[in-house]
Amino acid sequence: MRAFAALALALKLALWASAACADWRGDVQPARLVGEGDFSVFGFTLYRAQLWSERTPVDYDARFALHIVYTRSITRERLAQTGLGEIRRLAAAPIPAETLARWRADMLRAFADVVAGDQLSAVYLPDKGVRFYSGERMTAEFDDPVFARAFFGIWLDPATRAPDLRRQLLGIAQ
């Protein structure tokens, strides 16, 4: 009986340790850094972004992660507002108001206010959706492939507002 209790305790500790160490990197194993670059506005760098992927070239048939390290303070409301604005701008057709409202609520649940040094990450889950992290803590997962593609399109769509950053993330030479 004592051996069983020791085994149960060891298993519990192993599960706790794996959960404590789990973060976005575990969602894209094995992955490698495809590219990285800074996003700046009016000469002020807002963040450094990295794109990690299980395969290259990056495509929507395999998992990949966008990892962002912020250099400025930004509220989660501003992050969601800016993200939705870009999603709307990049959309091929108008997005229904109720869909935009749902996506805004999802982003507000997934995002955190950030200050310099904070990290937010998003993992693309093929044919499923997206998983978000603040630091090493998962904040939300959405089973919505349309939202996931629209969200990652902010950086990866050819019509992005940051074409140089897109090229750097995708490892495309100029």
UniProtKB/TrEMBL annotation:
<keyword id="KW-0413">Isomerase</keyword>
<dbReference type="InterPro" id="IPR016087">
    <property type="entry name" value="Chalcone_isomerase"/>
</dbReference>
<feature type="domain" description="Chalcone isomerase">
    <location>
        <begin position="45"/>
        <end position="171"/>
    </location>
</feature>
<protein>
    <submittedName>
        <fullName>Chalcone isomerase family protein</fullName>
    </submittedName>
</protein>
<dbReference type="Pfam" id="PF16036">
    <property type="entry name" value="Chalcone_3"/>
</dbReference>
<feature type="signal peptide">
    <location>
        <begin position="1"/>
        <end position="22"/>
    </location>
</feature>
<dbReference type="GO" id="GO:0016853">
    <property type="term" value="F:isomerase activity"/>
</dbReference>
<keyword id="KW-0732">Signal</keyword>
